[in-house]
Amino acid sequence: MEKITSHFVNLFMIVLLPPIIFESGFNMEKKPFIRNIGTVLTYSFVGTFIAIIFSSSMFYMTGSLGITYEFTMKESWSFGSLISATDPVAVLAIFKQMDADENLYAIVFGESIFNDAISIVMYKTITNLGTDDTEVSTQ
């Protein structure tokens, strides 16, 4: 089963995901995006990291308090990084329908692209960490 999962992940990351990202970037209005790149990067990096930290901490604390199933720190951070990426498809569709400001559209669109990438990198980083231990041995 692990081999099938590994092949699916590779297929998704190498074959399916690049055309989706390329199409999004190709059809994007470039001038508003470049004009707002600082805001886009700030919202995507800071916002995604805040979402990861908050959701992971809450998930870990609720387990520690016995409210939910208790997960390890690594499992909590993995879950937090998975759910931290937002998908504003509905918001962007409404923006297009309402003919919203192009700067607002570019900020939301750009932020969604970058926070997906940040979440993928964080998830891969966390799952590749060596141990689940949260305690450091002094011996």
Automatic annotation (TrEMBL):
Family annotation (InterPro entries): Cation/H_exchanger_CPA1 (IPR018422), Cation/H_exchanger_TM (IPR006153), NaH_exchanger (IPR004709)
UniProt keyword annotation of Membrane present: yes
Pfam families xref list: Na_H_Exchanger
PANTHER family: SODIUM/HYDROGEN EXCHANGER, SODIUM_HYDROGEN EXCHANGER
Chain ranges passing through the membrane: 6-28, 40-61, 76-95
Protein name in UniProt: Cation/H+ exchanger transmembrane domain-containing protein
Provenance organism: Strombidium inclinatum
One example of a Gene Ontology biological process annotation: regulation of intracellular pH
Domain spans labelled Cation/H+ exchanger transmembrane: 7-132
UniProt keywords, alphabetically: Ion transport, Membrane, Sodium, Sodium transport, Transmembrane, Transmembrane helix, Transport
Lipid bilayer topology: Multi-pass membrane protein
Record flagged with keyword Zinc: no
GO cellular component terms attached to this protein's record: plasma membrane
Domain of life: Eukaryota
GO MF annotation, one: sodium:proton antiporter activity
Localization, UniProt: Membrane
